[in-house]
Specification:
It is elongated, with a radius of gyration of 27 Å. With about 220 residues, the protein is mostly helical. Helix 1 crosses helix 2, helix 1 packs across helix 4 and helix 4 packs parallel to helix 8. It has two domains: about 45 residues, Homeodomain-like (Arc Repressor Mutant, subunit A); about 130 residues, Tetracycline Repressor, domain 2 (Orthogonal Bundle), CATH 1.10.357.10.
Length: about 220
C-alpha cells in the first residue's frame, strides 16, 4: 500500500516544482518532470494536489512564507543600517545574475509575466508575494525616515524599489549584461541620496551679542 503520508513527500513535491518552475517556467514544466525530480509517483502527487494549479499555489505559498529565511535573513546578515539593507537585498539578486551568467529571473516576477490572466487564487497568491517583499522594504524605509525627506511616501518608495529590481533583473537577463542591472541600481541609489539631501539640517544656534555681558562689565571707581 502506498504510504501517502511519508514524511517529506509533500515538501519534496513543492521543492521540485519550485525549482522547475523557476528554471523552465510553469507551462513548460510537466508533471512527469516534477515526479522524477521529487522521486515520487503520481499517486503521491494527486493525494496532496488535485491538479497542477494546486501545486503552483503551494509553491507561491512557500515563497511567501519563506521570504525571511530564504531571502531577507541571508541578505541582511551583519547589515544594520536600514537603507543599506535595501541595497544588500538588491545585491542578492545581482549575485544570482552573476552566478548564472545573467539567466536568472525573479521567480515571482517571471511567473507573474508568464501567467497573463491567472485565476483569482493564483493572482491573489502572486500579489501576496509582492506585498510581502514591499512590506520588508517599507520597514527599512520607515526605519530610516528620520534621515530622509520629511514628506517621503514610505509605501510608494518601497514599491519603486520593487519596480526597479524587477526591471533591472529583466533587462540584465534579456541583454545578458550585468551592467544593465548595475546602472538601474545606481540610479536608485542616487534617488535615496536625494531623499537624504532633502532632509532639512538642524541649524546651529546663533551666537549671542558680542562684548561683555552686563554682569561682567567693570564698575567705575567712585
Amino acid at each position: 500500500m502506498l504510504n501517502q503520508d511519508a514524511p517529506g513527500t509533500r515538501e519534496r513535491l513543492v521543492g521540485a516544482a519550485l525549482r522547475l518552475f523557476a528554471e523552465k517556467g510553469y507551462a513548460a514544466t510537466s508533471i512527469a518532470e516534477i515526479l522524477r525530480l521529487a522521486e515520487v509517483n503520481s499517486g503521491s502527487l494527486y493525494y496532496f494536489f488535485p491538479g497542477k494549479q494546486d501545486l503552483l499555489l503551494a509553491v507561491l505559498d512557500a515563497y511567501r512564507t519563506g521570504i525571511g529565511p530564504m531571502l531577507l535573513e541571508p541578505a541582511w546578515q551583519g547589515v544594520d543600517d536600514p537603507v543599506e539593507r535595501v541595497f544588500a537585498l538588491l545585491a542578492r539578486y545581482r549575485q544570482a545574475l552573476a552566478r548564472t551568467g545573467c539567466t536568472y529571473g525573479c521567480p515571482i516576477g517571471s511567473l507573474a509575466l508568464e501567467i497573463h490572466d491567472p485565476d483569482p487564487p493564483v493572482r491573489a497568491a502572486l500579489a501576496a508575494n509582492f506585498t510581502a517583499w514591499i512590506d520588508a522594504i517599507a520597514g527599512c524605509v520607515e526605519a530610516a525616515r528620520g534621515r530622509l525627506a520629511p514628506d517621503i511616501d514610505v509605501r510608494a518608495t518601497a514599491e519603486l524599489v520593487l519596480a526597479v529590481m524587477e526591471g533591472a533583473v529583466m533587462q540584465a537577463r534579456t541583454q545578458r549584461d550585468l551592467g544593465a542591472f548595475d546602472r538601474a541600481i545606481a540610479q536608485l541609489r542616487r534617488h535615496f541620496d536625494g531623499l537624504a539631501a532633502a532632509r532639512p539640517r538642524a541649524t546651529a544656534r546663533p551666537p549671542g551679542p558680542s562684548g561683555p555681558s552686563r554682569t561682567s562689565r567693570t564698575r567705575k571707581p567712585r
